[in-house]
Specification:
Residues 799-881 form the SUEL-type lectin domain. This protein is an alpha+beta fold. It is 16% helix and 31% strand. The relative contact order is 0.11. It binds 2-acetamido-2-deoxy-beta-D-glucopyranose (5 copies).
Length: 892
């Protein structure tokens, strides 16, 4: 039973690799980075690079080491990040490089793991980040026009970019200093905006490139989406697919700075998902057709803590459907499928860098091959590799969206699923096909939107053993005053622009005025059945309207008209408008002119003598909330706020603060708050602002029951969450929690029920996998000495299934196992006509009680062939539980 023995040896090897990869690398010896038309040249060698996008402030410093390690384990060579000007310079001239903004620490961690770093300084970054990364004070610089040939802007931009470059150099973080930084970026997607600025835009591009390269950073610079990137600056591609991309000079390599592996989400929207098969297809096609550097935007998306979400209207989660989820756990099968892809590309790297361009072969109407090799001779159907110095790797692509194809490549027949690429590191054996997912699927405890993988639709309920834990039975409350609350309120004639007043110190700005209504007016309304109304010509992002202290209506939108019927009494009436921003604009030309709040006229209609224009009335202004400025969410807040016990009959109540103390869930897993019972507001834990929350419901329609990976992806193609609140789970980083007595404070605008707020650990609850006999053998075998020496051939090797729970978790039970022809999908598997009776015992023996396991896919492993002549598949569903709860630690 050679096959059996070999398969177990393979599984052993896997456990070893996982262990070894946890050991940290070291900083580098100094090396130079340059490029030619084929690739970046690192320390004298062309490299094929996969990069993982991680934005450091979207995680905590405590999370960084794990995120970087998981990126590396997933096959990343590079970490890419933007820098965030408004986080680093919140007040002009006062810099912040601490905590989540400790850029130096982040870069050093990347280097200590042996990964390179691509630093995209911007300083405009878009990034679905508040104001695209610009500090709001930048608007107030006299004479400023952003992102164009404007001296005040250029001065500020240069000062910040120089500050970052100098900091990196002082800390010895550039490659030639032995640091990890191999590449930088100036500006960001300016090509989309350039035409709005005419000649000045063109001059600005030239200035920006010259300014950046003049800073002596000593590594290449890129400008993404910038076809006119000047001189040495490399123009790069940001898209879902970049395999057709050609830079503007033959001297520059093809770089893909943003491979959109998912998409962001808006309040009231659905969740986009990009299938792993299509993502892998896009990456394989990119390297196939001459690409050399590819970055996942995002590899880890994370969280928009505080008020950092951009907008308008981007949610607090920036999960992005990334291979590492918002909480730092692997999103499977995406992460695992990409790891396999990266391993396959790595096997091809010697051949890919050896030549200037691939050899093209048409294999069918929608099928083609690209071959990279040296000392390769092809004659008709034969391929000869001459000598030890020869290299040969090939990509076989089927771009047909509907049908599989059998193609002949040098005398051998290959079956290519629709919309897929097979990677042949030796021009003969398939190491990977983008449409064949061998990686496991993972379902998390907090997963609420339906799990979508290719051709699978699973409506999620909470897993059975997960109980709802209400965070507290006792709550305190205090009302937020409506209108002016502080000495710094002021009264002027007319409507001021929102940001001009708040300087974004708060989302909230109160506008208050008083209207006199005479007896005649009241009788006019009564006699003519007229109802007066308030109209606002245009407004963003949200307004709440109060008459005489009572909330009578709200409206939301982006520069929309508001018509609100109002009931006024005889005499003086207080009209209060609360203007709210929900993330400042992060995309578009002339951001400095965008502003927020109201555009005039603001009128009362339906009066006897016509409309009353309030645009030039006396208005009193108050920035922010009283509780916000008194910092009543901090731990040392000293009860002066007047908290009282919250009783059930007092809810729901608008404009209220709530607070309680709670114990953290046991364990070290990341934690999430379920705020589905609340309306809209903001939340703080132990004084840390965890973000805005809003239980806005997504449209009922537009989601897909089945996500078909085939064909060109767009962000509307595979969405989930229809008819449900967009976000209900909010990440509370572990490092912000202590064991007990954690302070939770919420500001609620519209009225929710804090008694129903629950808390839960976020971990992988269920894992499933599906691998067939026809799957390619494990990629590790390519480096096995017997394979390299030709002592074993690919046809002798068997595929295998790998299963793994999160760290500290153990496979407690096998819920389903069938070797044969099973059907269904994760959590809904069923047996087919063909089923090996040993399925469950073989899998249980290999997996139960372990953190990870591996099962070979062959008749020998399952003690015989359950159905001769049929391609068999192994399907497994398993449960993961904390190792501590089952009384023994995971067996390795
Ligand atoms: C990098 O390039 C510079 C300038 O050409 C050279 O002086 C230096 O020795 C190089 N460093 C390494 C490590 O090759
Ligand atoms: C999707 O599933 C159906 C039934 O489960 C199957 O017939 C079909 O071939 C699958 N399609 C793809 C693209 O895998
Ligand atoms: C508003 O400000 C004025 C001074 O400008 C002050 O006298 C008044 O008390 C303030 N109102 C509130 C409610 O604090
Ligand atoms: C903001 O205030 C400045 C002066 O402080 C003024 O020049 C500018 O027009 C204001 N912007 C808007 C949009 O009202
Ligand atoms: C309590 O709060 C009040 C008002 O914010 C402040 O003046 C006072 O110094 C605080 N006292 C302590 C002990 O923190």
């Amino acid at each position: 039973m050679v096959g059996t023995r070999r398969s177990w040896l393979q599984c052993l090897a896997l456990a070893l690799t996982l262990q070894l990869s946890v050991i940290a690398g070291e900083f580098f010896k100094p090396f130079n980075v340059s490029y030619d038309h084929r690739a970046l040249i690192i320390d004298g060698k062309r490299r094929m690079l996969n990069s993982a996008g991680i934005h450091y402030p979207r995680a905590t410093p405590e999370m960084w080491p794990d995120l970087i390690a998981k990126s590396k384990e997933g096959g990343a060579d590079v970490i890419q990040t933007y820098t965030f000007w408004n986080g680093h310079e919140p007040v002009r001239g006062q810099y912040n490089f601490e905590g989540r903004y400790n850029l130096v620490k982040f870069v050093k961690l990347v280097g200590s793991r042996g990964l390179y770093l691509h630093l995209r300084i911007g300083p405009y970054v878009c990034a679905e980040w508040n104001f695209g990364g610009f500090p709001v004070w930048l608007r107030d610089v006299p004479g400023i026009v952003f992102r164009t040939d404007n001296a005040p802007f250029k001065d500020e931009m240069q000062r910040y970019v120089k500050k970052i470059v100098d900091l990196m150099r002082e800390e010895m973080l550039f490659s030639w200093q032995g640091g990890p930084i191999i590449m930088l970026q100036i500006e960001n997607e300016y090509g989309n905006m350039e035409s709005s600025y005419g000649q000045k835009g063109k001059d600005y591009v030239k200035w920006a490139a010259k300014m950046a390269t003049g800073l002596g950073a000593g590594v290449p610079w890129v400008m993404c989406k910038q076809v006119d990137a000047p001189g040495d600056v490399i123009d790069s591609c940001n898209e879902y697919y970049c395999d057709g991309y050609k830079p503007n000079s033959y001297k520059k390599p093809t770089l893909w700075t943003e491979n959109w592996d998912g998409w962001y989400t808006e309040w009231g929207g659905t969740w986009p998902h990009r299938p792993a098969e299509d993502l892998a297809f896009a990456v394989a096609r990119f390297f196939e057709r001459g690409g050399s550097f590819q970055n996942y935007y995002m590899f880890f998306g994370g969280t928009n803590f505080g008020r950092t979400a951009g907008g308008p209207n981007y949610i607090t989660s920036y999960d992005y459907d990334a291979p590492i989820d918002e909480y730092g756990l692997l999103r499977q099968p995406k992460w695992g499928h990409l790891k396999d892809l990266h391993d396959a590309i790595k096997l091809c790297e010697p051949a890919l860098v050896a030549v200037d361009s691939p050899q093209y072969m048409k294999l069918g109407p929608k099928q083609e091959a690209h071959l990279y090799g040296t000392n390769v001779h092809s004659e008709g159907q034969t391929l000869t590799l001459s000598g030890k110095k020869s290299t040969c790797s090939a990509f076989l692509a089927n771009i047909d969206e509907h049908n599989a194809a059998a193609v002949t490549f040098f005398g051998q027949v290959y079956t290519l699923p629709p919309w897929s690429v097979s990677i042949l590191p030796d021009c003969r054996n398939t190491a990977f096909n983008t449409a064949k997912v061998g990686a496991q699927t993972s379902i998390k405890t907090t997963e609420f939107s339906s799990l979508l993988s290719t051709n699978v639709s699973v409506l999620r309920q909470l897993p059975s053993q997960v109980e709802v834990t209400y965070i507290s039975k006792t709550w305190l409350t205090v009302k937020e005053p409506i209108g002016a609350w502080g000495e710094d309120n002021f009264t002027v004639q007319g409507i001021l622009e929102h940001l001009n007043v708040t300087k974004d110190r708060s989302d909230y700005l109160w506008y208050m005025t008083r209207i006199y209504v005479s007896d005649d007016e009241i009788s006019f309304w009564d006699e003519n059945s007229v109802e007066p109304a308030l109209t606002i010509h245009s407004m963003r992002d949200l307004v709440r309207i109060f008459i005489n202290g009572k909330l009578i209506g709200s409206a939301a939108g982006h520069w929309v008209r508001v018509d609100q019927p109002v009931q006024l009494k005889q005499g003086y009436n207080d009209l209060v408008l609360l203007s709210e921003t929900i993330g400042l604009q992060n995309y578009g030309a002339f951001l400095e002119k965008d502003g927020a709040g109201f555009k005039c006229p603001i009128k009362l209609t339906g009066f006897r003598n016509g409309d009353i224009d309030l645009s030039n009335s006396l208005w009193t202004y108050q920035v922010g909330l009283k509780g916000e400025f008194m910092k009543i969410y901090t731990i040392d807040e000293n009860e002066t706020a007047g908290w009282t016990d919250l009783t059930l009959d007092a809810i729901p109540s608008t404009f209220s603060w709530y607070k309680t103390y709670f114990d953290a869930p046991v364990g070290t897993e990341p934690v999430a708050l379920n705020l589905e019972s609340m309306g809209k507001g903001q939340a703080w834990v132990n004084g840390h602002h965890i973000g805005r929350y809003w239980t806005l419901v997504a449209p009922k329609d537009g989601c897909q029951e089945i996500c078909d990976y085939r064909g060109t992806y767009n962000s509307d193609k595979c969405t989930t969450g229809c008819g449900k609140p967009t976000q209900i789970w909010y990440h509370v980083p572990r490092s912000w929690l202590q064991t007990s007595n954690n302070l939770l404070v919420l500001f609620e605008e519209t009225g929710g029920n804090p008694f129903q707020i629950s808390i839960q650990s976020h971990s992988t609850d269920t894992i499933c996998a599906q691998v067939s006999e026809s799957h390619h053998p494990p990629l590790r075998m390519w480096s096995h000495p017997d394979f390299v020496n030709g002592k074993i051939s690919a046809s002798e090797l068997i595929p295998e299934m790998n299963l793994q729970c999160d760290d500290g978790y153990t496979i407690s039970s096998i819920e389903f196992a069938s070797y044969g022809t099973p059907g269904g999908s994760c959590q809904k598997f069923f047996r087919g006509n063909c089923h090996s009776p040993n399925s469950l015992s073989v899998v249980s023996q290999a997996c139960q009680g372990r953190n990870s396991c591996c099962v070979g896919i062959s008749n020998a492993v399952f003690g015989g062939d359950p159905c001769h002549g049929t391609v068999k598949t192994l399907v497994v569903e398993a449960k993961c539980v904390p190792s501590s709860t089952i009384g023994f630690s995971a067996v390795e």
